[in-house]
Amino acid sequence: MAGSPKRRVAVIGGGIFGVSSALHLARLGAEVTLVTDGPIASGASSRSLAWLNSARYRSRAYHDLRMAGLDRYHTLAHANPSANWLRFDGALTWDADEAENEIDAVFAYETSIGYAALKLEPGEIAAVTPGVDAAAVTKQGAIFNPAEGWVDLPSLIRLLLIQFEAMGGRLVPNAGKARIIVEGGRARGALLGDGTRVESDAVLLATGPSVPQSLAENGIHLPDQTPIALLVKTKPHAHPLRAVLNTPRVAVRPTPDGGFVLDSAWSEEGIVTAEDGTHSFPPGTTERLLEEASAVLEGRPRLELESYAMGPKPIPADGDPVFGELAEIPGYFVAFSHSGATLGLIAGEMLAREIATGEAYPMLAPFRASRFK
């Protein structure tokens, strides 16, 4: 990365990457304008399972970045011990009873790199993490990762936004689609939906699934495999489960109000996108998700639907994040990643330092957009 330190910064996007980066920039003394197309936390951050982890297989560089992300969350949890929106009660994972079951191999890999993991037989689970129906666990057993947890991203974003505005940051909500202004070969600010021009020395584009489309407007191709995802929320239900569950048919995560949020691969695959861009799912999908969740919970409780959210889930083409300045357009920074929850705090911190100082952050080197060329 070349160039002098940036002082005026426009951050486009009101999700976890945008708000986290804006706050860290304000802490570094930058003059920050945070622009959102709609309400804060109304996009992908509102539809995230928000499981905090670095489980299973990934590149070592990606694992290290996620571990740094977990570190920042543990620090935040220590400073907010009574927060009901950030919990570290572990996560339990098991695979289907078929030839592709990888539980033993995953356990060996995780322990080989020092990632905290316990291999549990079905009968051992209740003593380690309550609330699970042991009969639902396949005979190969499960992995419990005690250092993992979850966050309610809208609650976290609201907290970060309060701190951002207290530091003098400027919020421009409901501004419609913003277009990045590129003049003289570099980013110069953002043009808002009503024609207002926000002048800046650098711009961070953190608009989740719409990042590739916005980049294309400036001639930058960023391959992605963004699917349409469905997140179901149940009504509050008194239950002992505290851990995140990742099972063959459903993922389950507690919520601050005592309910659960649910998602799955099969429900995602059933979503249909119409020609007008609207999304729908087959009848009975939410009911099946509720039944699948009940089947893995102790006592097999009757879960009731409170709400659901559906929309694009940002995933770069190779699965790894895209962070940092574009090689083709100085002053134009991007944040585009599937793991927004786990990386939200650390990515905001690192991107802010790059933008404010003009110095590249070494841990982000493998995650530049230029790797797709």
Give the helices and strands, then pairings.
Blueprint: E1 8-12, H1 16-27, E2 31-35, E3 51-52, H2 60-79, E4 86-87, E5 91-93, H3 103-112, E6 118-120, H4 125-128, E7 142-145, E8 149-151, H5 153-166, E9 170-172, E10 179-183, E11 186-191, E12 197-199, E13 202-205, H6 211-216, E14 228-234, E15 244-246, E16 251-254, E17 260-263, H7 265-269, E18 272-273, E19 279-280, H8 285-296, E20 305-312, E21 322-325, E22 332-336, H9 340-357
Parallel strand pairs: 1-2, 1-13, 2-9, 5-15, 13-22
Antiparallel strand pairs: 3-8, 4-8, 5-7, 6-7, 10-11, 11-12, 14-17, 14-20, 15-16, 16-17, 18-19, 21-22
Helix pairs in contact: 1-5, 1-9, 2-9
Task: Give the key terms.
27% helix; eight-stranded mixed β-sheet; FAD/NAD(P)-binding domain; 2 domains; D-Amino Acid Oxidase, Chain A, domain 2; six-stranded mixed β-sheet; 22 strands; globular; alpha+beta; 373 residues
